[in-house]
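haha ok so turns out i had the wrong file open the whole time. this is the CORRECT one, sorry everyone. sequence first:
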Amino acid sequence: MMLERLDYWWSVLRAEWPFKLRPRLWPLIITLLFLACLLTALAVVATTHMTRTQYAHLQRLEQEKSQLQTEWGQLLLEEGAWSTPARIEQIATDRLDMRIPDVNDVEVIRP
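then structure:
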């Protein structure tokens, strides 16, 4: 059965249908197909390498973004702590020797 199919195929090829096959073109066709496969394989390897490199770079950037977000949050908390009235009063008392006047020290001036 298989030999009959091969014989039929060969007879069709000898009849030059659907195109004329020249024996001297076969090495060229095979070489071109091999080169096309080789170039495709190289393109796949290069693309895979570039993808992995870009993904590693993306991970580094995301990690840096996360660290910057954390630092930004800490700075916002510090800013809130620095501007609280209790902190300002404590600094005024410790460094400048300021104090809230007693009731006896207050003098009201009327126009």
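The radius of gyration is 43 Å.
again sry for the mixup
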